[in-house]
Specification:
The protein has helices at about 15-30, 95-115; strands at about 5, 40-50, 55-70, 70-80, 85-95. Strand 4 and strand 5 form a beta hairpin. The protein has one domain (about 5-115): Thiol Ester Dehydrase, Chain A, CATH 3.10.129.10. The chain has a five-stranded antiparallel beta sheet with strand order 1-3-4-5-2. It is built from two helices and five strands.
C-alpha cells in the first residue's frame, strides 16, 4: 500500500486535493509494471469523499474493478491508522505516450509563445 507521511510538521494539513493526488499516484504506481513500453495512463475522473482528518500516516488501498477497452476503473479507500478518511472511485485512460505527446506539443508551444 502506498503511504504518505505528515510526520514532523505540526502545521501540515492533508487537504482533499492531496488525497486525490495520492489516489492518482497509487493507481499510476500499481499499473506501471504491467504497461507495455510506450504506454501510460491519464486520469479522467475521480469521485471522492473526504470523510475525516488524517494523522501522520496515510495508507491507500486501491482495486482495479473494471476494464472496458482503454478505460480502467478503480475503487479506493484511504486510511489514517485504522480510521477510514476517504473513499471513492477513479478512472484512468490507457494512452500511447508518443501519440499523446505529439498531440500536446503544438498546443504547449503556442501557449508558451503568447504574451
Amino acid at each position: 500500500m502506498p503511504e504518505f507521511s505528515l510526520a514532523g510538521d505540526p502545521r501540515a494539513m492533508f487537504a482533499t486535493a492531496f488525497l486525490a493526488g495520492l489516489v492518482e499516484w497509487a493507481c499510476i504506481e500499481s499499473l506501471a509494471p504491467h504497461l507495455p513500453d510506450g504506454w501510460q495512463t491519464v486520469g479522467t475522473h475521480i469521485t471522492l469523499s473526504h470523510a475525516g482528518p488524517a494523522s501522520a500516516d496515510i495508507r491507500t488501498r486501491i482495486e482495479l474493478v473494471e476494464v472496458t477497452g482503454d478505460l480502467l476503473r478503480f475503487r479506493f479507500a484511504c486510511f489514517s491508522g485504522s480510521a477510514l478518511i476517504g473513499a471513492g472511485t477513479h478512472e484512468r485512460k490507457l494512452i500511447r505516450t508518443s501519440r499523446f505527446t505529439a498531440a500536446m506539443y503544438p498546443q504547449t508551444r503556442r501557449a508558451i509563445a503568447r504574451p
